[in-house]
Amino acid sequence: MSKINQRRVLLVHPLGYQASAAKTDIARKANLMPPLGLAGIASYLEVRGKKADILDCFAFPLTAERRLKTYLEMLKPGWIGFSCTTSSFLDGARLAALAKEVLPGIQTFCGGPHVSALREKLLADYPAFDFLLVGEGEETVFQLMEEPKNCAKIPGVVFWNATGKAEFTGFREPGIELDSLPFPAYEKLIGFPKTYRLPIFNYPKAPNTSCISSRGCPYICSYCDRSVFRRTFRFNSAAYLYRHLEYLKHRFGIRHVNFYDDQFTFNRKRIEELCQLLQSRPLDMTFNCAVRAEHVDGTILEMMKKVGCWMISLGIESGDAELLSRHRQKVDLDFMAEQVKLIKKTGIRVKGLFMVGLPGETTASVRRSIAYLKSLPIDELNVAKFTPFPGSPLYENIHSFGSFNENWGKMDCMSFQFIPEGMTSAELEELFIEFYKTHFKQRRILLNYVAMLKHSPDSWLRFVTDLGSFLRFARHSDSRMLK
Ligand code: SF4
After folding, report:
1. Please, which of 166, 336, 422, 481 could form a disulfide with 123 given CB 3.0 to 4.6 Å?
2. Is 221 in the pocket of ligand 1 (CB under 6 A)?
3. Closest Cα to atom 4 of ligand 1
């Protein structure tokens, strides 16, 4: 029998729920994002002489477990690592236990926001993990694979110390220089780019992908989990980013990119430089990004539009100024409205990101948000069900603001696990549906979707193909409203 290969690692993106439920998961159908963090770690390790592969259970839920077992039996990696959100953590722990059964001697680790937030508290309760990794993973995974016995000296690791206590070695400082990283190993994602899909009507052309060009955000919003990259803001230079886009285009035929950064325009100079590069050497690609309203103005928007900016997402969260000022800095709903109009005037689509169910939310505050939404010329809408993640500032005292069912497996922003004081779950669900109905009933929005026949034909094709699932979901939502 061949020996375990200590230089090889399987990196796993767990599904988070039963594979059989994946067939009807509308969110999965509408939006399947590549696990970019794992792809980044894989390329970093390979450049340093390790062997790394990726198993994306989210992309292939029905065959993932079989693939996992076959991989372990055939290639006998010394390591298996998981990247978990709160909702996928328990599934990650289950798969780690399975890996130990199939291949005794394999070493396991887990990273991601859930682990970065709860650290030592998790190790004792989840013995399937030998190590927990806090913060960004590239160098930490590499050093751990090099010298696991020396883990006490590797920043960013939670391990069992000699006295039998879970110990955290501290944060890795400073963060890695992002321009020194190789591009993510997209080629290790089976079927990339076709397997992965941006949300319907959120792109003009396919194939497309998400891409990350910065890490962190310097703001503090009460509901936001920033336990992995914390309050730093580091970014790729414009020159690196241009090369990255060029690579995506030439190697994979990508025609549209969604920048998955928290604050794409936070460093204005690099965006100006990127626009200049894209103007002097066009790549014929379009892109989306997310910004904070105070970090765009007419000039930069014009520049971005000229080089292919197609849609901008804005975290609006609520149309109730009083509620919002409890949860984020610099609240000015009039300014936000002006910025939405400015983006639209430039010819860029706007996606409004709202949230329902924050502490302090009431029926009246949600109705104010809905009225605010109606007053804005936004094109796309996303309403999240507020979920108090362990890494968010609200988490610590959440029980004093309402009732919280801390069921990690259900904490995916698709259900209300937290109910603000004075409200019920049924009320929140009803208001949530009212939010979407108000948006979709507007004549302007309906015409907008008709126009997508021309501007995003691939989206329409997907919509028609999956029409059955969407109708089932809509019917289910309606029947919940009637209950
Ligand atoms: S919600 Fe946005 S602006 Fe607020 S801390 Fe999170 S990433 Fe930053």
Report:
1. 166
2. yes
3. 221
